[in-house]
């Protein structure tokens, strides 16, 4: 009987412990009339986030008292943020931005490494050394970042590619919101996928279509590319790398090809670049920020146009293999310190940090019409075949007194929806307008199209896209009435092509909305 009673008591203790663990906090209104029990998922210094029998709830902390073992210390609150994903972003760019943020705010940033893939930044007040926040990082690859987010082990994902439809569907089902929608992602900085060879290789240009065939194992000898009679060795990052997946999504998939099984894989961009540099018969796809001593191939097309990877062509997305560096942020409140950090990443100071870290920043630049001779040469070369001379004249007359902003807008393939980088550009341009950057100036949203179909129809489509972008910017600029500013739209259809229309990537580059300013 004593043994039976002891077992029964142990059972009830276990049951009570499980109940407490499952409902570890109780939020009560001051008068006790409202009470919510649940598992504390997070506290941002202002709001509690609870898992309850009613689902996940967010409760304003100013209107309730918290009771239970998991209640946070309101007097000595420490903001916590968990970030997971791309090692390229996590090892280089994010630390630089956190240290820049700490310097700007007067904090002390202390980095502690836990293991090969994890480290933590502690932010402390310089005056009294009080701990204000802990930003924890797990740096692996983009796939792991989204997996951690879905497992509720990360608050933010670092990604070198757009979120996949399957990942977005699972995130929506998990209550994280539509991560492909406005404000759910932001572009920290820009990189690009660039084809590289060893110094001295006579091949200096390649079309994206041929590059895809090389990496699919369809073109196997340098002689086929105008080089020596030697087999081509192909190099790429590891399969889970965001850069490798972006190459599959943006280079191979449009060509209807898959990567050859003989691709030599590398764990880091540095290792890839070094291997290609030391092999005279190698070709690789690397990060623009880490090309080392390798030669970068120019991208060409069948019509003779060429595009070279550079800071401006990457920033404008004119270079077709631009690789935005994303942060994906679910639809939940983050701690105030984390929100302040995210605001900092869009500041002019942060853009300087991004440049110094070796990446392409997003600070808008104004490009005069004289700096765009190649584009006008392309247009002039097609007069009489695809382009009307009168439209070229009108374009020059309209834009010659203006400058082009490096902030451009492009659309998802086969869609009127802005791509992820352009959604971020909408927010960036809206913030600049709200802060008065373009007061007393004129802005013109100018639409362009590819050359497929009748010219009149292309011009109408280009005008529709220009109006759509302006509408998106107006919606995002919540604190200012854009109707009070000197803003207009125009369209020139296929008049100013950036690339050859004979390929899917060329048509994608040509379908764009530019912003011109005076």
Describe this protein's structure.
It is built from 15 helices and 25 strands. Strands 6, 7, 8, 9, 10, 11, 13, 14, 15, 16 and 19 form an 11-stranded mixed sheet that branches. Strands 20, 21, 22, 23, 24 and 25 form a 6-stranded mixed sheet that branches. The protein has a 5-stranded antiparallel sheet with strand order 4-3-2-1-5, covered by helices on one side. The chain has 518 residues and is an alpha+beta fold. The longest helix has 22 residues, at 455-476. 33% of the residues lie in helices and 26% in strands.
Nearest-integer average pLDDT: 87
Percent of residues in beta strands? 25-35%
Low-confidence stretches: 5-22
> Globular, elongated, flat, extended or rod-shaped: what is the shape?
globular
Number-wise, the strands total: 25
Query: Approximately how much helix is present in the residues?
Result: 25-40%
Number of helical stretches of at least 4 residues? 15
* Computed CA radius of gyration, to the nearest angstrom: 27 Å
How does the helix and strand content classify structurally? alpha+beta
The termini sit apart by 92 Å
Please outline the major beta sheet: 11 strands, mixed
């Amino acid at each position: 009987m004593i043994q039976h009673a002891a077992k029964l008591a142990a059972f009830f203790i276990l049951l009570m412990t499980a109940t407490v663990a499952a409902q570890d906090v109780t939020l009560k209104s001051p008068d006790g009339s409202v009470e919510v029990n649940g598992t504390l998922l997070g506290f941002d210094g202002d709001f509690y986030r609870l898992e309850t029998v009613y689902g996940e709830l967010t409760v304003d902390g100013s209107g309730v008292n918290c009771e239970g073992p998991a209640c946070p210390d309101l007097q000595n609150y420490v903001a916590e943020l968990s970030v997971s994903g791309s090692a390229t972003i996590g090892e280089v760019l994010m630390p630089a931005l956190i240290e820049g943020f700490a310097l700007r705010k007067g904090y002390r940033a202390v980095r502690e490494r836990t293991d090969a893939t994890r480290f933590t930044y502690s932010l402390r007040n310089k005056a009294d050394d009080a701990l204000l926040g802990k930003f924890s990082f797990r740096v692996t690859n983009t796939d792991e970042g989204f997996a951690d987010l879905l497992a509720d082990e990360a608050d933010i994902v670092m990604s070198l590619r757009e979120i996949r439809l399957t990942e977005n569907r699972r995130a929506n089902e998990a209550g994280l919101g539509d991560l492909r929608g406005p404000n759910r992602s932001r572009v920290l900085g820009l990189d690009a996928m660039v084809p590289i060879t060893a110094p001295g290789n006579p091949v200096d240009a390649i079309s994206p279509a041929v590059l895809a065939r090389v990496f699919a194992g369809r073109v196997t000898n340098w002689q086929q590319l105008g080089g020596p009679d030697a087999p081509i060795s192909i190099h790429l990052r590891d399969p889970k790398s965001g850069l490798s997946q972006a190459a599959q999504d943006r280079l191979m998939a449009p060509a209807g090809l898959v990567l050859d099984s003989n691709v030599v894989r590398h764990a880091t961009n540095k290792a890839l670049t070094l291997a290609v540099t030391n092999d005279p018969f190698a070709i690789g796809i690397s990060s623009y920020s880490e090309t080392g001593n390798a030669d970068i191939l120019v991208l060409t097309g069948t019509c003779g146009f060429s595009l070279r990877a550079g800071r401006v062509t990457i920033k404008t997305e004119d270079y077709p293999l631009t690789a935005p560096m994303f942060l994906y942020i679910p639809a939940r409140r983050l701690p105030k310190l984390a929100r302040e950090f995210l605001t900092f990443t869009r500041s002019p100071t942060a853009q300087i940090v991004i440049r110094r870290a070796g990446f392409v920043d997003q600070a808008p630049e104004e490009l005069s019409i004289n700096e765009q001779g190649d584009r006008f040469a392309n247009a002039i070369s097609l007069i009489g075949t695809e382009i009307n001379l009168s439209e070229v004249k009108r374009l020059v007359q309209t834009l010659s007194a203006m400058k082009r902003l490096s902030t451009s807008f492009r659309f998802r393939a086969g869609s009127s929806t802005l791509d992820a980088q352009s959604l971020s550009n909408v927010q960036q341009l809206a913030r600049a307008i709200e802060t008065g950057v373009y007061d007393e100036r004129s802005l013109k949203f100018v639409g362009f199209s590819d050359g497929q179909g009748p010219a009149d129809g292309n011009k109408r489509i280009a005008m529709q896209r220009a109006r759509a972008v302006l509408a998106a910017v107006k919606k995002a600029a919540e604190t200012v009435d854009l109707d009070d500013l000197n803003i207009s739209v125009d369209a020139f259809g296929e008049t100013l092509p950036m690339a050859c229309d004979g390929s899917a990537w060329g048509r994608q580059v040509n379908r764009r909305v530019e912003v011109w300013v005076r």
